[in-house]
Specification:
Layout (H helix, E strand, L loop, with lengths): L2 H16 L3 H5 L2 E8 L7 E2 H15 E8 L3 E3 L2 E12 L4 E12 L5 E6 L1
Parallel strand pairs: 1-7
Antiparallel strand pairs: 1-2, 3-5, 4-5, 5-6, 6-7
Length: 116
């Protein structure tokens, strides 16, 4: 898989978070995808909890805008540092940052995420 294809997959992940689009977000993942968010927490099966994840975002944030730095692609994995800026439901500005590592399977779906 080309680095450009992997970059598009990762970009779609963040675009669907910004849109708070649960169906679009989960469509980026393999059926048996696992997320470690954050690393050290019990792994979550993405397809079993995706509505809750996006629902939590919708409950707390009026708006989210991800800003990603350069995506580093090696083999079938990508790593990137990101910053999320937004507005809470109470109107307060919020900002948080992290690093996420993505493993992409041969079908072009996210197989695993590890968020720091």
């Amino acid at each position: 898989m080309s680095p450009q294809t992997i970059e598009k997959i990762v970009s779609a992940y963040f675009a669907n978070i910004a849109a708070m689009n649960p169906e679009g977000w989960v469509n980026n993942f393999a059926e048996d995808a696992i997320s470690y968010d954050p690393v050290g927490a019990a792994p979550a099966k993405v397809h079993e909890g995706y509505r809750e994840f996006i629902g939590q975002l919708q409950a707390f944030f009026e708006k989210l805008e991800p800003k990603t730095e350069h995506i580093f692609v090696a083999g079938n994995e990508a790593a990137l540092k990101w910053t999320m800026e937004g507005v809470s439901k109470t109107g307060k500005p919020v900002i948080f940052a992290g690093i996420t590592i993505f493993e992409i399977n041969s079908a072009g779906k996210i197989q695993t995420t590890r968020a720091y």
